[in-house]
Write a structure and sequence with these properties.
This protein is mainly alpha-helical. The chain has one domain: Cytochrome Bc1 Complex, Chain D, domain 2 (Orthogonal Bundle). About 55% of the residues lie in helices and about 0% in strands. It has six helices and no strands.
Length: about 110
């Protein structure tokens, strides 16, 4: 009986740690990314040297950064404002979309 409880606990811990971007919708992320294009480019390649390229970035990283901007943990006057209204699903979708783009932008 104790073994069964241990297995169930391990499964529960694993299930809660699975990356939520697996359920993300890159097409929805593309639709949401229009505001991102101003600085990060339509194909995820930055329009200026002080903005990072997002094309090909790992979705876990992009999602983490957006959540940090949204919470204010990471400071950027522009990004804090842009990320504030994003839902968790919006963030996961955006992250999946940018990961799906070719890093070279073509």
């Amino acid at each position: 009986m104790n073994f069964r409880i241990l297995v169930l606990a391990a499964v529960a811990i694993f299930a809660t740690s699975i990356d939520s971007t697996w359920a993300a919708d890159a097409a929805a992320g593309e639709a949401k990314s229009k505001i991102c294009a101003t600085c990060h480019g339509r194909s995820g390649i930055s329009t200026a040297p002080n903005f990072p390229n997002l094309a090909g970035q790992k979705s876990v990283y992009v999602a983490q950064q957006l959540r940090m901007f949204r919470s204010g943990e990471r400071k950027s006057e522009q990004m804090n404002i842009i990320a504030k209204p994003l839902s968790d699903q919006d963030i996961d979708n955006l992250a999946a979309y940018f990961e799906s783009l070719k890093p070279g932008g073509s």
